[in-house]
Every structure is written in structure tokens, then in C-alpha cells.
Design goal:
By secondary structure, this protein is mainly alpha-helical. It is built from 26 helices and no strands. It folds into two domains: 411 residues, Na+/H+ antiporter like fold (Up-down Bundle); 254 residues, no CATH class.
Length: 678
């Protein structure tokens, strides 16, 4: 019961941390979570969750790295493969040797092998912490990809080096050739094992689907269990469970890209479920880290054998050495332009980017979990030398790296010029348009054919929203446009409609009777534009027709057409409207740009109405409504992905991303409440 209550408190602290971050946006969420965890540990001794390294790695690190492998762009990782290996493998072993000797020289009471172990566990960077910090600043895209790739790989190399160093400290035996050979076997074996297991799991899911087992809940359960299975099986085989999880995530991403259209619903459910799981896991990692720090600090603080000021100084010196070594390492390999995948010296990263790279190597929970895994005793039964001091130094370096990165990275990163209120709102509207455009493109990709009514309805709805945003962006000044110039553009658009319909007739896409009726409609519209009196006569006649229908119960003449003819005319109008919009887009980029906006808005309105007409033909069609809902889920997911992409690229701020996500949530809520959208 106590453990259950402790978990509830930790989950509540995650929620509190996100609420606090709203009021303190300049403080990274991981730091807030660590602080809350530390306060909870000091206020209530009952809230105690022991950090068991093996459980921690399988429960937290495996799914987090699996997700990172699944979402990190594979093509960009491949382009940066050489620099990632330099950072994730080369820098780790250089750190072990250089910093290990320095720690032993600085603190002689720590044996050389144990110093190597401390340096090894300090070498991996934390991808979660880096991503959290990067969300507040405008990090160069290539640098972010490098840091992500490094964090995916260096956990394994750092932990393997740590394992051999601690084994040498415990037994007093060490063989360099054996260590190098074991590292290659463990690392490559982990990657191969993860890929093979992931392929087998993917094959199993395909077999289940082909057997008729397409239950989304079951397939989602398989997805959630996959990272744990990858890690446990690889570790049992003596390989790297961490690299197995990364490889499995990459294989999953490949399968996702090739997924059948029937699995779109699973993809939507998977994204929503994983977002919740990752939110909880990310938060728990840092809250649990915060819970450990008071106990770790108390041991050193209360022990008279340690000078507290001197110990903190040791931690600061070790952190400074890590930053300096990281800077020197990157500098050495970038002078030839190699670290960032560049071939010409003049394209080498600037000094500012190199400093960003150095301070972005944030340490995290993996470091502390590794430190806690140090055994209590040596092989002869004597206590492990300076174990408490090593754990304290690891925790202190983690805090130093987080705080320093939080302060310096925003100062070093390239900031955008502060914008006024009007510019900020304009940027938000433009971002919203880009997000909804991504939704339209996603629906277009899923569109079965040109007559897919459900897709047309969804696209028309998004186009209508985009049109409204653009009208607001222009300040609704279109109301004062010249009617004469607008009428000229309307006639130009009508000519484009007529030409489009004629091409469709000549190519045999439409029948003559439908074309003739459509041309007569265009003739009527041209008369309306040319003669205002004719417009009033047409409106009066339509009013009388509706009045007569209300008394006699007879429908207007247009409704008497067979449903097939109505659908054919609707298809012609959709195609010609799109052609007219294309023509007006060309005009919009010339002198008559503002007048063309009104005409484009008019045609978008027509498309919106056509997508919903005739209701009698499609209103009761459950298949149509179900298809439309599926496409809306596809569109909503595309919106979420676009917001995340814009946020990661630094194109929008955290505040703007929050507003866009709130806009998307409103559409999602409407889908649940009403059963359909539009």
C-alpha cells in the first residue's frame, strides 16, 4: 500500500511540475521535477522509491530509447553516422581515460579503476533532458540531430565501459583486448538482436491481422510490451539491451511507414497512447532522480570525514573537465568539417555552435542509476572504496550540467528578434495555416479517388478554416475592394471554369448533357455579374420558387434531377472551382493580389457547400460518415505531427505550440461528442 501511495504522489508531482512550468517558463521542466522530488523526499520519509538500476533501465530507459529510435529521422541519422560514432563511442572512451586519470589524481582515495568507472558513468548524455532544454531555445537542427543520435548510442558505450571498470575495481583484473572485443560483441549483438526480435514481432502482428485479429487493443498491447521484451531478451543473451531497444524502435518506424491503410486507426490510437506513456515515464525519471538526491547528499553532508566545500569543488572541477574535453574533442574533428557532415573547411561550425555542443551534453538519470549499481563490497569482502563519494559526485555533476545548460544555452543559442503583438498574432495564424495545410495534405494522400466525397468534405472544412484565418490576417479589409475589379476577376475565373469543363468534355470525363447544363449555369452567372438588374430578378425568382414549394410541397427544379446527375454536376463544379482557384492564385501574386483573395475565398466557400451537398444523397450513408471520421483522425494526427515538427525545428515557440495543440484538442473533443465533424 505504501508503494502504491508513493507512486500516486509521484504522478501528482508530474502534474504539479507542468503546472509550475506554466508560471516559470524560463525553468526547464526536468529541473522543476527534480526539485519537487527532492522536496517530497525531505518533507515525508514515507515517500521513498529505491532506485534499483536493473529495474530502472528496463522500466524507464528501454521504452524511452525505443521511442527515440522510432521517431528520430533515419536519413538524418545516417548522414551524421560518422560524427555520431565519434561522439557516442570515441568521446566516451577518451572521457574514461582522460577524466578517469584526472579524478584519481584529484582524489587519490578513489582507486584508478573506480575513477575510470565514475568517468564512464559520467560520459553518457541524457536525450530526455536535452530535448526538454531544446524546447525552450532555437537549437540548430543539425546540432539537435547530432545530440539525439549521440544520446541513442552513448548510453550503451558508457555502460559497457563502466561495467568493465567496476569489474576491474572489484576483482583487480583487467584485459584491454578482452574489453574491446566484448564491447564490439555486446554493441553489435545488441543492435542485431533488437532488429531481429523487432522483425519477428512485426511478422507476428501481420500474421494476426491476416488471421482476422485486427483488434486495436491487442495490437496496442503488443506495441507497449515490445521495448521491454527487446531489452530483457538482449540482456539475457549477454548483449546490450539499450541498443536492442534503439534498433527495435528504428525497425518499428520502418514498418510504420509501410503500414497498410487499414491500420490507420491503430496508428492514431498508438500515437495517443504513447504520448501519455512517455509523458509519465519522462516525468517519473526526473522526479525519482530528485527523490534520491537528499539521501545521497545527507550521507556526505553529515560525514565528518568529508569537507563539504571541497567535495562540491571536486564535482565542479570534474564537470568543468567534461565540458572542456567535449569542446576540445568537437573542435578537433570540426576543423576539417567532418563532425557535422561537412566537407569544406569554410562550412565548419562556428565557435558558438561548438560551445553549444559542449554545454548540451547534459547528464541525467542513467548516470545516477549506474552509480547506484556500484557494488557495496569488493571481491575480498571489504567495502567498495569511496562508494558514497562517487555516488554524490555523480549526482552533483548531473545538477551542474542541468543548471548550467538551462542558464547558458538560451544565452548562446540564436535568438529571434522580439516581435510586437501584431507580429506575434500574425506568426501564430501563419503557423495555424501551416498545420491545417499539413492536415489537408494527409487527407489527400489517403484519398481514394477524385470522387471520394468524404475526403472532399474533410478537405473543404479545413480550407474553410484556412480561409477564415486568412481573412482575419488581412484585417477583413477585403470588404472595401473595388467591385468593378473584382467582377473582372470573377469573369476571368468563369472563363477558366468554362475551359476546364470543355477539356473534361473533350477527354470524355463527362457527358454532353451534363456539360450543356453546366454551361447554361455559367451563362446565368455571367449575366448576373454583367447586369445587376438581372441579379435581382434571379433572386426574386428563387424566392418565389421556394415560396411555391412551401405551399405545394413540391421541391425546386434542381432537386428533381436524378441523384446520378446531381453527383455528376457536383463533380464538374468541384473540378472547375479548383481550376479557377489555381488561376486566381497566379493573379494573386501580381498587381491584383488583394482582389484575387476575395475571389479565392468565394470559390473556397463554393467548394465547402458542394462538399456537403446534396445531404439527401449522403446524409444517411453510415459508410460515408465513418469514412469521414477516419479521415478526420488522420488529419488531426497530421496536425499534431506538424506542431511537434515546427516546435522541434524552432519555428514556433512553446506558447504557440500550446495554443495550436489546444485548437487541435477542440476538434478532437468535437469528434467524440458529436460522433462526426462537419
Amino acid at each position: 500500500m505504501e508503494l502504491f501511495l508513493a507512486v500516486l504522489v509521484l504522478l501528482a508531482l508530474i502534474g504539479v511540475s507542468n503546472a509550475v512550468s506554466r508560471f516559470l517558463p524560463f525553468v526547464p521542466v526536468p529541473l522543476i521535477q527534480i526539485a519537487l522530488g527532492g522536496l517530497a523526499a525531505m518533507m515525508s520519509p514515507a515517500i521513498r522509491v529505491p532506485l534499483e538500476p536493473e529495474l530502472f533501465f528496463v522500466l524507464f530507459i528501454a521504452p524511452l530509447l525505443y521511442n527515440d529510435g522510432k521517431n528520430t529521422p533515419r536519413d538524418e541519422l545516417w548522414k551524421l553516422r560518422a560524427p555520431i560514432l565519434f561522439m557516442a563511442v570515441g568521446l566516451v572512451f577518451v572521457t574514461v581515460v582522460a577524466v578517469g586519470y584526472a579524478i584519481h589524481f584529484l582524489i587519490p582515495s578513489i582507486p584508478l579503476a573506480a575513477a575510470f568507472g565514475l568517468a564512464a558513468i559520467l560520459s553518457p548524455t541524457d536525450a530526455v533532458a536535452v530535448a526538454a532544454l531544446a524546447g525552450r531555445i532555437h537549437m540548430p537542427k543539425r546540432l539537435m540531430r547530432l545530440l539525439e543520435g549521440e544520446a541513442l548510442m552513448n548510453d550503451a558505450s558508457g555502460l559497457v565501459a563502466f561495467k568493465f571498470a567496476i569489474a576491474a575495481a572489484v576483482t583487480g583484473v583487467f584485459s584491454l583486448p578482452h574489453a574491446v572485443g566484448s564491447f564490439l560483441v555486446i554493441s553489435l549483438g545488441g543492435l542485431v538482436a533488437g532488429a531481429v526480435i523487432a522483425f519477428l514481432i512485426g511478422w507476428l502482428r501481420v500474421v494476426l491481422r491476416r488471421s482476422g485479429m485486427e483488434d486495436v487493443t491487442m495490437h496496442m498491447l503488443i506495441q507497449l510490451l515490445t521495448p521491454f521484451l527487446l531489452y530483457i531478451v538482449a540482456e539475457e543473451l549477454g548483449m546490450s539491451g539499450i541498443l536492442a531497444a534503439v534498433a527495435g524502435g528504428i525497425v518499428h518506424a520502418i514498418e510504420r511507414d509501410r503500414a497498410e491503410p487499414s491500420m490507420l486507426k491503430l496508428r492514431a490510437v498508438s500515437t495517443g497512447t504513447w504520448s501519455v506513456v512517455l509523458f509519465i515515464l519522462n516525468g517519473l525519471v526526473f522526479v525519482i532522480l530528485g527523490l534520491q538526491i537528499p539521501a545521497v547528499a545527507r550521507i556526505i553532508w553529515l560525514d565528518p570525514a568529508f569537507n563539504n566545500v571541497k567535495v562540491i569543488g571536486y564535482a565542479a572541477i570534474i564537470f568543468a573537465m567534461l565540458i572542456a574535453l567535449r569542446f576540445v574533442w568537437t573542435y578537433a574533428f570540426t576543423r576539417g568539417g567532418r563532425l557535422f557532415g561537412l566537407k569544406r573547411r569554410r562550412e565548419a561550425p562556428s565557435l558558438r555552435v561548438l560551445v553549444l555542443t559542449a554545454f548540451s551534453g547534459v547528464r541525467g538519470a542513467v548516470t545516477l542509476a549506474g552509480a547506484f549499481s556500484i557494488p557495496l563490497a569488493l571481491a575480498d569482502g571489504s567495502p567498495f572504496p569511496q562508494r558514497d563519494l562517487i555516488v554524490f559526485l555523480a549526482a552533483a555533476v548531473i545538477l551542474f550540467s542541468l543548471v548550467t545548460a538551462s542558464v547558458l544555452l538560451p544565452l548562446l543559442s540564436k535568438k529571434k528578434q522580439p516581435a510586437g503583438e501584431a507580429d506575434r498574432k500574425k506568426a501564430e495564424k501563419q503557423a495555424a495555416i501551416r498545420v491545417m495545410t499539413a492536415a489537408i495534405q494527409a487527407v489527400h494522400r489517403e484519398r481514394g479517388d477524385e470522387t471520394d466525397a468524404a475526403a472532399a468534405a474533410v478537405i473543404a472544412d479545413y480550407k474553410s478554416r484556412i480561409r477564415e484565418l486568412r481573412l482575419k490576417e488581412e484585417g477583413r479589409k477585403q470588404a472595401a475592394l473595388s467591385g468593378e475589379k473584382e467582377a473582372e476577376l470573377r469573369l476571368t475565373a468563369l472563363r477558366e471554369e468554362r475551359e476546364c469543363a470543355r477539356r473534361m468534355l473533350e477527354s470524355g470525363q463527362i457527358e454532353r448533357k451534363h456539360a450543356d447544363r453546366f454551361f447554361r449555369t455559367l451563362d446565368q452567372v455571367e449575366l448576373i455579374l454583367a447586369n445587376r438588374l438581372h441579379l435581382w430578378l434571379m433572386m426574386a425568382r428563387l424566392f418565389l420558387d421556394k415560396l411555391r414549394a412551401s405551399f405545394t410541397g413540391k421541391e425546386p427544379a434542381l432537386a428533381k434531377l436524378p441523384e446520378a446527375d446531381l453527383e455528376a454536376l457536383r463533380t464538374i463544379k468541384i473540378r472547375t472551382c479548383e481550376a479557377a482557384i489555381g488561376e486566381m492564385e497566379k493573379v494573386r501574386r501580381t498587381d491584383n493580389g488583394r482582389e484575387a483573395v476575395d475571389v479565392i475565398a468565394y470559390y473556397n466557400g463554393v467548394l465547402d457547400r458542394l462538399a456537403r451537398f446534396p445531404r439527401a444523397v449522403r446524409g444517411g450513408d453510415k459508410q460515408f460518415e465513418e469514412r469521414k471520421r477516419e479521415l478526420y483522425w488522420t488529419a488531426i494526427q497530421a496536425e499534431r505531427d506538424k506542431v511537434q515538427s515546427l516546435y522541434e525545428q524552432g519555428d514556433i515557440t512553446r506558447e504557440t505550440a500550446g495554443k495550436l495543440r489546444a485548437m487541435i484538442r477542440e476538434r478532437e473533443a468535437a469528434t467524440f461528442e458529436l460522433g462526426e465533424i462537419g
